[in-house]
Each structure stands twice: as structure tokens, then as C-alpha cells.
Amino acid sequence: MQTQNKGFCVVFKCFNYKNRLKVNTLSYKTVSANKATVNKEWVIVDAEGATLGRLASVVASTLRGKHKTNFTPHVDCGDNVVVINAEKVTLSGNKWDQKEYVRHTGYPGGQRITVAKEMHRKSPIRLVEEAVKGMLPKNRLGRALYRNMYVYVGPEHPHEAQKPKKLEL
After folding, report:
1. What is the pLDDT of residues 21-60, one digit of tens each?
2. Which fold has domain 39-167?
3. By the 8 A CB rule, do 85 and 46 touch?
4. Cβ atoms within 10 A of the Cβ of 142, count?
5. Distance between CA 147 and CA 150 in Å, rounded?
6. Range list of β-strands (E), the chain
7. Helix axes of 124-133 and 52-64: crossing angle, nearest 10 degrees
8. Of the residues 26, 82, 101, 122, which has the maximum number of CB atoms within 10 A of its CB?
């Protein structure tokens, strides 16, 4: 393409009044992924010694598929994530005693509050699941993405047949 002083550029299209020079815009088409073209992989994340929020943001981003070049916001194009050693996750500061998880039974006066330490003692899996679920979209797509996550206490998991790749934090 020649540069001349007479003419102007519009996004992806350059016009020159003398030669009527145009840029081929077909090479600039955005590829939109769909259910058939998406490439889903299996990833394993070790939560041992990881801070809960930092772990959850990496897992949520991987579930969403934001690390892929063909990311499409309205399609489930993320990977399946297996989180192991959920009981060895850490919280900084006084969050073990101060972080509260609120739920409601549905009855009048049925608000229940659980502290992070108590939730970790009862079910460390729920601690990781709650953190990741809060970072996913609050719609049908978010619920579908959430089903692609598997959290386990300890290093054992039943997904060896899928040959998951290790994801470093």
C-alpha cells in the first residue's frame, strides 16, 4: 500500500481519492466461538499454600476461558478445572475469624452466618467453591461454568483418565 498525502483512514478501511485504494477487510473478521468449535481441556490446580482469593480468580478466569484467543463472552469456552488440596488453602490477616458467609433458610428470622474458620472445619471444599462462584457471571452461563469445576480434599481425584495439565499459580 502506498502512502500519499491526500486521503483519510477509517478503522480498517483506507481510502485514497486518486487511486480508490482499499484494504482487504476480510482478513479482519472476528472469529466467534460456539459450542461445536470450542476446544475444552482439563486443568489441575494445587491449592496447597495458595491464598483463597488469588486461587479463585485464576480458577474463575480459566473456567471462563479468558486465557484463550477465541474467547467469546456468551459461550462456555473455558476449561474443566480440578482443584486438589482444598483443605490447605490460606487466608491472610484475621480473615479466618472475621470473614463471614451469610445464607438464608427462607423462613422469617432465618439468616445464618458462618465464619470462615468454621466453614473450613466443616467443609473446606465449600470455602473454595463459594470464592470461585462469586467470581463467575450470575446467570445461566455462570451456572454452567460452575459445573466445570471439581474440588477435592487431598491430592487424590478421579479424573486421571482425562490427563489434566498442571496449572501453576
Report:
1. 566 666 677 778 888 999 999 999 999 999 999 999 999 9
2. Ribosomal Protein L13p; Chain: A; (3.90.1180)
3. yes
4. 16
5. 8
6. 8-10, 13-15, 42-46, 80-84, 100-104, 111-115, 149-151, 165-167
7. 60
8. 82
